[in-house]
Design a protein that fits this description.
This protein starts with 6 loop residues before the first strand and ends with a helix. The protein is α+β, with helices and mostly antiparallel strands and about 120 residues long. The protein has one domain: OB fold (Dihydrolipoamide Acetyltransferase, E2P). The protein is globular and about 35 Å long.
Length: about 120
């Protein structure tokens, strides 16, 4: 349910590293809490984002929630599938439902995030 190869933030976002590129999405806990996702508002590629700063919004049938970046750097890619078909966030939160890719400004930022076991403990 919470893949061990990812890092997690207290705001329920995850990070998957590929070199110095961080793929960011929302956790199963977040998307289940939200319910059916109907809209995702994301910034354009090229935008700088600070660690733990708001980078967008996600809207469900229940609520609108802010999205916070677990890492800082330059957004190098935005997932068009998530904006065009927001339900992909519910269907594949750790796969095709990713939101942004960030060129990491400082790898030590990852030390501020939780591993899978720690994240699951915070949910209990």
């Amino acid at each position: 349910m919470y893949p061990e190869d990812l890092k997690y933030s207290k705001e329920h976002e995850w990070v998957r590293m590929n070199g110095n590129i961080a793929e960011v999405g929302v956790t199963v806990f977040a998307q289940e809490s939200l319910g059916d996702v109907v809209f995702v508002d994301l910034p354009e590629a090229g935008t700088d984002v600070a660690q733990f700063a708001k980078f967008g919004e996600i809207e469900s049938v229940k609520a609108v929630s802010d999205l916070f970046s677990p890492v800082g750097g330059k957004i190098v890619e935005v997932n068009a599938a998530a904006t065009d078909s927001p339900e992909v966030v519910n269907e594949e939160p750790y796969g095709t439902g990713w939101l942004i890719k960030v060129e990491l400004a400082d790898a030590s930022q990852l030390d501020e995030l939780m591993d899978s076991a720690t994240y699951q403990t915070t949910l209990e």
